[in-house]
Amino acid sequence: MERKQYQLGDIVQMKKPHPCGTNEMEIIRLGMDIRIKCVGCKHSVLVPRAKFESKLKKVLRSSEEPSSDAQK
C-alpha cells in the first residue's frame, strides 16, 4: 500500500468526524507532530504523525504551490 501524499495547507478527510460534525481538516503544521484545524469550527489539534497517518482517509483538496518555472 502506498503512502498518502500530503503537505502544508491541504484539506484532508479523516476517518472519524470532529464533534462539530465535519470530518474535513486543514493541515497547518508539519513535523514529528501534525497540527490540523477543523474546517467547520476552527478548533486545532496536535496529533503525532503515526496516529495522523493511520486516521487519514484521503486528501480532498491539495494546496497548489507555484512552481519555480512559473516564476521565470
How would you describe what is shown here?
With 72 residues, this protein is mainly beta. It has a domain at 21-61. 10% of the residues lie in helices and 38% in strands. It contains one helix and five strands, in the order E-E-E-E-H-E. The protein has one helix at residues 49-55; strands at 11-14, 24-29, 33-38, 44-48, 56-61. The protein has a five-stranded antiparallel beta sheet. Strand 3 (33-38) and strand 4 (44-48) form a beta hairpin. The longest helix is centred in the last third of the chain and has 7 residues, at 49-55. The protein is globular, with a radius of gyration of 13 Å. The model has no long low-confidence stretch (mean pLDDT 86).
CA-CA gap between termini: 37 Å
Task: Estimate the strand proportion.
Answer: 35-45%
Largest sheet: 5 strands, antiparallel
Shape: globular
Mean pLDDT: 86
Tally of alpha and pi helices? 1
User: Helix and strand succession?
Assistant: EEEEHE
Number of strands: 5
Helix/strand-derived class?
Answer: mainly beta
Q: Which regions are unreliable across 5 or more consecutive residues at pLDDT < 50? A: none
Radius of gyration: 13 Å
The neighbouring-strand order within the major sheet is 4-3-2-1-5
- Assembly state (oligomeric): single chain
Helix content: under 10%
Which features would summarize this protein structure in a list?
mainly beta; 5-stranded antiparallel β-sheet
List the helices and strands and how they pair.
Blueprint: E1 11-14, E2 24-29, E3 33-38, E4 44-48, H1 49-55, E5 56-61
Antiparallel strand pairs: 1-2, 1-5, 2-3, 3-4
